[in-house]
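Support request from a user on the community tier.

User writes: "When I paste my structure tokens into the form, the page sometimes reloads and wipes my input. The last time it worked, I copied everything first. Here is what I submitted, just in case something in the input itself triggers the reload:"
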């Protein structure tokens, strides 16, 4: 199961259920995909085919939605 948290600017932000305990989010677009750690701070964990410009754009979106993502993580995984 991979619940979508939100979509913005052509990117889908989602979690994979039961993947690992450290808080993170996956991001996918037509151009590629990435994984970002959300704690202790937003940080790129993995990138596949996204440009530096796209990664910077995604990081800005993550910063703007950080509280929403953390809340969604806790609701989904702290059942």
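"...and here is what came back when it finally went through:"
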């Amino acid at each position: 199961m991979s619940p979508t948290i939100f979509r913005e600017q052509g990117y889908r932000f989602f979690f994979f259920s039961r993947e690992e305990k450290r808080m993170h989010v996956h991001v996918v677009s037509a151009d590629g995909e990435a994984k970002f750690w959300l704690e202790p701070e937003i940080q790129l964990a993995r990138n596949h085919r996204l440009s530096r410009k796209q990664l910077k754009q995604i990081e800005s979106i993550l910063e703007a939605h950080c509280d929403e993502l953390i809340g969604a993580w806790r609701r989904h995984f702290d059942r």
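Agent notes: The reload is a front-end session timeout and is unrelated to the input. The mean pLDDT is 94. Residues 4-77 form one domain. Escalated to web team.
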